[in-house]
Specification:
Organism: Latimeria chalumnae
Radius of gyration: 28 Å
Oligomer: single chain
Mean pLDDT: 81
Order of helices and strands: HEHEEHEEHHEEEHH
Number of helices: 7
Strand content: 5-15%
Helix content: 55-70%
CATH superfamily of the largest domain: L1 transposable element, C-terminal domain
Low-confidence stretches: 102-107, 205-209
InterPro entries: L1_C, Transposase_22
Keywords: Coiled coil
Number of strands: 8
Largest sheet: 3 strands, antiparallel
CATH topology of the largest domain: Rec A Protein, domain 2
CATH class of the largest domain: Alpha Beta
Shape: elongated
Protein name: L1 transposable element RRM domain-containing protein
Structural class: alpha+beta
Distance between the termini: 79 Å
Number of domains: 3
Strand order of the largest sheet: 1-5-4
């Protein structure tokens, strides 16, 4: 009968639709697996890039052309002059040094411990100057990792306003030193929420206006460092 024929046609169409849906589901599973693999490979490449930059430093603030024709010797002398001879137990050996916009590798130290000493000493000394110019030392990292660390800008500003020491751990983990011990954050929003709940530091004795001026100066320094990191 015509009804049976219609039912048979519907059954055939359902079978065909089920096969097509099954094929689509298999393709979706395959694509999702490929996407996961691409994400893994991307993370691996980014990790390898940062490992390749492990001994590199990014120095910001030098005048154009001040390094002359021998940037390696210039950098070796600059490090000793700015950070002090006591910072380095032996001679600082630099493999390469160049301006960041030129197509050569950034300045690279032959020994990773030298890089660690330089960054640690720079933090201890605070604001550094060379030839009346403010200079800043940064670890050389990939653009992707730099963007991740930049997401903590607001958290860093809060740390400054609360007078809390902080640092970055590789790859993008914020370490905040508190009275009851360090606290670590991998999520910028979590860090901001936590820091906003902390009480403001008590005002220091003495001239409050001087304190406010110092606070504003610290904010300007933070903004300048943020701009320099983006270069």
């Amino acid at each position: 009968s015509s009804i049976n024929k219609k039912l048979d046609n519907i059954s055939l169409r359902l079978d065909s639709s089920e096969r097509r849906i099954g094929d689509i589901e298999n393709r979706v599973d395959h694509i999702e697996n490929m996407i996961s693999e691409v994400h893994w490979l991307h993370a691996k490449c980014n990790d390898l890039e940062n490992r390749a930059r492990r001994s590199n430093l990014h120095l910001v603030g030098l005048q154009e052309g001040i390094e002359g024709k021998d940037p390696i010797s210039f950098m070796e002398k600059l490090l000793v002059e700015v950070l002090g001879e006591e910072t380095f137990p032996g001679q600082v050996e630099i493999e390469r040094a160049h301006r960041a916009l030129r197509p050569w590798p950034k300045e690279g130290l032959l020994r990773f411990p030298d890089k660690v000493r330089i960054l640690r000493r720079a933090r201890e000394l605070g604001q550094l100057t060379f030839k009346n110019q403010k200079i800043f030392f940064f670890p050389d990292v990939s653009a992707e990792l730099q963007a991740k660390r930049r997401e903590f800008t607001e958290a860093r500003r809060l740390c400054h306003s609360l007078h809390l020491p902080f640092s970055f751990l590789h790859p993008a983990k914020l370490r905040v030193s508190l009275q009851d011990g360090p606290k670590f954050f991998t999520d910028p929003e979590e860090a901001i929420g936590f820091l906003k709940q902390l009480p403001d530091p008590p005002p220091a004795t003495g001239d409050r206006r001087g304190k406010e001026k110092k606070k504003r100066k610290g904010k300007k320094k933070e903004k300048k460092m943020e701009k320099e990191e983006k270069k």
